[in-house]
Every structure is written in structure tokens, then in C-alpha cells.
Amino acid sequence: MAIALRSRARRRGDLLTYLVLTLWVLFVLWPLYWVFTMALKHENEVLVRPPKIFNFEPTFDNYATVLNLARSGLATNAGAARSDFPSYFVNSIIVVGTSIVITVVLGTLAAYALSRYRFVGREPLALLVLIVRMIPMMTVIMPLYVIYRSWGLYNTYQGLILVYQLIGLPFFIWLMRSHVAAVPTELEDAARVDGCNLGQILWYIVVPLVAPGMVAAGILVFIYMWNNFIFGLLLGGTEIQPVTVGILNYLGYDQLQYTRMAAASVICITPEIIAGMFIQRYILKGLSSGAVKG
């Protein structure tokens, strides 16, 4: 009888847990569903009461308009400051893609140095790297704006790529430091005995072993960079601005284009979803591989 009661109580506990988790998943996914469906609606269907959650006729005209593929006769981006949204997407690909490559290369080398070499001030330097990541962006944006205007970096790809290192490099270094520390030093010692130099050790031993961690840290840094708004808005000028700033074009002075803003938002988050789906196994492996040293 006691065993049966405990089994029944355990099943009730599991059922309650599943119910709570299901409600939480629905709560998290609801804003995404709302944005996805809003992008498929007509503008006059967005603010109707009661809201059309399921009972609406989907249309892809908003995506066609945002991507400048609209057929003749469809509404254009009236009230928007600039309708060339694909150019913003290309800007994000160039800036974030180049920034990720620089971050991965420099971050891996820095993480290796902080993990393997013993030198005076190593831990304070590592702490300084973390502090840089913790500094609010708004405290440095005005000095950066003045410097960029005087040095000719304002409204340039080089300027945005450089400032994006403030977002990704400190975070990547701290994540990769634990992964590098998890690599046994005996493997490197054996490679040195065989005549390998530092570059060969890094390329043939360290990098293959920490590759899952590099992928996991890289995708997290990619998300932070891709979603950044303030640097692109204030340092990108009017030509070199990322996709997050391009969405603002649908906040016109005379109207708020909900459906096109939703379509632009869906396009904006698509690369992150695709990247997460394709490298999910590397993310799980990478996040756990550096948790235990040895």
C-alpha cells in the first residue's frame, strides 16, 4: 500500500512538472508566434478586437515588400526613411561575419595564453577582460562617438567591426579559457618532444580538442553581435547600419507599419535560428566539455 501511494504521488508530481513546463514553453513561444503571424497579416487585421489569432488569411506581401520583391500595385514602404532593407541585412552579414572570425582567432589565442602561461598579472588581466564585458554600453558610447568622428571610423565597416569586439571578445575569451584548461598538458608536452612548434601544437592538438567549445562560444557571441542595436545606431551613420537598425525604418513619422516590422523581425532572427539548429549538437557538447578539467 505504501509503495502504491508513493508511486501515485510520484506520478502526480511528474504530471504537475510536465504541466508547469508546458505552460512555461507556451509562455516563451507566444511572443514568437505573435510576431510570425503578424508578418502574415494585412495591416488592418493587426489591431482588430477581438484579435485574429488563428482565423486570418495569410499573405506574403509583407515579406515581398520588405525584401523589395513586391509586385507592381502592392504598397511600398510609405513613411519609411529608407526601404532598402536587404542592404541592412548585407551590412550585418559583413560586419558580424568578419567580427566573428576576428573574435575566434584572437579570443582562442588569448584564452590559450591566459590558461597556459604563468606571468605576473595574469589573473588581474583576466579579471580586466571580464570587467570590460560587464561595462554598460551607454557609458562608452559617447566617447566612442567622439573618437570615431575624429579618426574617420564613423559610418565605416572597419569601425563597426572594431567596436563589435567589445561585445564578443571578452565573453569569448572567458568561455574558451575553461575549454583550453581542460586539454591535458601532457599532449602538448608529447608534441614538443616530437619537434612541434607552438603553431603546430595549436593547430593540430589544441584547436581540434576545443573545436566544440569554439563553436558553442562562437554562436553565443554571434547572437550577441547580431542583436546589438546601440553601436550600429550611433556609430553606423546612415549607410553602414545593421539589420536591427533597419527595422526602425518602419517607424515612420506618420504611421507605424506593424506587419512590415514583424516581417523584418522574422528575417532578422532567421540566421540565428538556422545556426542554432545546424550546430545544436556542437553547442551541447561545447558547453559541457569545458565544465570539468582533466
Q: Which structural traits does this protein have?
A:
mainly alpha; 2 domains; flat; MetI-like fold; 294 residues
Structural overview:
This protein has two domains: 2-66; 85-289, Orthogonal Bundle (MetI-like fold). 70% of the residues lie in helices and 0% in strands. It has helices spanning 2-38, 61-66, 85-116, 122-134, 138-151, 157-181, 185-193, 198-227, 230-235, 243-246, 258-278, 280-289. Helix 3 packs across helix 8 (198-227), helix 4 (122-134) packs across helix 6 (157-181) and helix 6 (157-181) crosses helix 8. The longest helix has 37 residues, at 2-38. The protein is flat and about 75 Å long. Residues 290-294 have low confidence and may be disordered.
Short description:
With 294 residues, the chain is an all-alpha fold. The chain has helices spanning 2-38, 61-66, 85-116, 122-134, 138-151, 157-181, 185-193, 198-227, 230-235, 243-246, 258-278, 280-289.
